[in-house]
Amino acid sequence: MAARSKRLVLWVWILVAAHLATAQSNTVPLLEKRISIVFKGEPIESALKRVSALGGFTFSYSPAVLEKTGPAHGELHNVSIRECLDHLFSGKVSYREMGNHVILTAKSTTTEGTALRQVKITGYVTTTGDGERIAAATVLERQSLTAANTDAFGYYSMRIDKPAWPITLEAFKAEYDGSMATINAPTQADMVMNL
Question: Which of 34, 33, 61, 64 is nearest to 48 (CA)?
């Protein structure tokens, strides 16, 4: 009887461990979930409802964030939620995850002639051929000596203090050819780099 109990406990333990391993491996950040969607001139609020339904989360935002946005247009296939939001807002809105919510906030803007004290540059590093995202690549801005590594989804984010325009970024990783990209203005601060 004792041997039977030990085997039962062992099987229960194996099943629990397998379930936990599966749950952890399926954890994809909300902004990295991939969707396909078509927008045909619908109001942005309606577009966000559809995106949140496809992604299985909710948006949180002040109505003022959406005031200067027009209707949603475009056909997006197998893109991340982040890329979909970049498409919808053209870089005018910031977003971050909190639990099962994506929080939208307006990006601060500067007036003509006012120098930016800091700029946030974000994007993905992908392969040139098939657009596969590259994890653990390095993105470097040599003038300020600012660097960032891509996450498991090929995404990077960096802040550069007192940027001097244009900004040149370099991306590299062992076994890949390096890549350079130039950002001419703050409105281009979302950059995909191909290796």
Answer: 61
